[in-house]
């Protein structure tokens, strides 16, 4: 169970991780022992939080605690994306998990917002969901759950997106049908549909959208109304958009007119 903060609110996992990032905004290092005392958790529980945050590219683990993320050669683009608009992504993830019911099969696409949704899932869903994903951060997050049902999609690893793509990944996805797909994007507009900068990322995203009965897009306000390089899917493929309150109201109205359910976090 989440423990209480001094103001009576609850230290759930998203709140703890947001607090860790707040601390690292003002100092270079935070210790496991200090976090354990602040959250009222065991040091082992704190280390699990830190491991999940490392997997999202949000922090760097160092001896005794955590430090600000250091971009690596393998995934600087992902680390930069994960560090942008953190507050909005936290709110979006919290609303998105409310749309996922026990017993569903869910495809989690690549991207830092999608990974945050997976990290925000409550424990009572961990053993009931079938999670299918080509995202390495999601794989690493779900693998820490107790008794997860995880289907990891392999293929050619794309370091900048921390995801698996290519013919092998696409073929694997074509063999599966899921109830829901949770998809992120670089842009979503009424005229351009769902877009991303990378063609191979778009290819597997398109396959995921086709194989899912319902597609939920999670995208912060900076993505709304933006038309990216390569289309993942037309606007007709999107069922629900979860975004934040700064999204352009006119564009949201156009998306709603196109038949998309709009959820504002």
Strand pairing plus helix content: what structural class? Answer: alpha/beta
What count of helical segments does DSSP give?
A: 11
Task: Give the C-alpha Rg.
Answer: 18 Å
The dominant shape is: globular
Q: Report the CATH C-level class of the largest domain.
A: Alpha Beta
Largest sheet: 7 strands, parallel
Strand content range: 15-25%
- Quaternary structure state of the chains depicted: single chain
| Major β-sheet strand ordering | 8-7-6-11-14-16-17
Total domains: 2
Q: Got a strand count?
A: 17
Give the N-to-C terminal Cα separation.
Answer: 24 Å
Bin the helical content: 25-40%
The average pLDDT is 91
Secondary-structure element order, as H and E?
EEHEHHEEHHEHHEHEEEHEEEHEEEHE
Low-confidence stretches are: none
Summarize it.
The protein has 265 residues and is α/β, with parallel strands linked by helices. It has helices at residues 13-26, 32-39, 43-55, 76-83, 86-97, 112-120, 123-126, 136-142, 167-174, 199-211, 249-257, and strands at residues 3-4, 10-11, 29-31, 60-62, 65-67, 105-108, 130-133, 149-152, 156-158, 163-165, 178-183, 187-189, 193-196, 212-218, 230-233, 240-243, 261-264. The chain is globular.
